[in-house]
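Fold this sequence, please.
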Amino acid sequence: MKGRILMLLLCLYVLAGCSQQPAPKEIRLSDVDPSLVTATQRVTDKPPLRVAVSSILSPKETLTVYQPLLDYLQQKLQKPAVLLQRRTYQEVNDLLRNGTADVAFVCSGGYVAGSELFGMELLAQPAVKGKKVYQSYIIVPANSSAENIADLKGKAFAFTDPMSFSGRIAPVQLLLAKGFDSDTFFSRTFFTYSHDNSIKAVADGIADGAAVDSMIYDNALEKDPGLAKRTKVIERSFMAGNPPVVVSTHTDPALKEQLRTLLLTMHEENAGKAVLRSIMYDRFVPPESDAYAELRSTWRAVRGKL
């Protein structure tokens, strides 16, 4: 009985102590301490520039490559720039279609599909090593006996993305031209969602062949000459315009012109040249829609297979 009384008194003491605690301070997560805002963030209260990027490279490599460009655009426009990175080309196109992104770096196949389906617009086109066009390479292990894509019948093949020119549209068209159906030609197919992953799949023996971006493959060999001993190119597609910079119909016209001017003139100053080197471009040039004409007709012809 005495123990129960002591326990009751103890509970009353604790409750009394709790009732005397100060009321909890209300904190709103939307309130920002001005002393914690960076100098860059203080520049403007404008909405951020939303830059979408197709994962032509693996996500980590994409972020490394494009961060200097984001910093450059942020500084020039005096507004924050955010990267919207998506796994598939379709997801990037969706961002542009619904106005969630202001500008995007897309694959050539993604541009053709977007321009056909919802009016995606060319803004600028990169020149790389003096060229404004590229192609698809069909690659195989260095010890493979295959001499062209037809020799890969019944083999395992890596595509990049369903919307990719070099990683999907081109090999489907190459097979169609030889009288083969890409749906039944290979024993097994899979998507890697980046060209460097496709190269690695062939180099490591995971795939018997793959279709990859010629620019990325050539750059990979420059960085790692050993790849030439593990992989080889057996066939090449027609040429198409380099993966462009695009905007959607939702992009503010004034912002569009600002971006166009910035991209087309950035090679004229040292800071811009440094950024261009980081993304492995010579410069941006005015877009040429004719450079995508053959790709556009091919996309229409093989669309049902993509």
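Residues 40-130+242-294 form a domain with the D-Maltodextrin-Binding Protein; domain 2 fold (CATH 3.40.190.10). Residues 1-43 have pLDDT under 50 and may be disordered.
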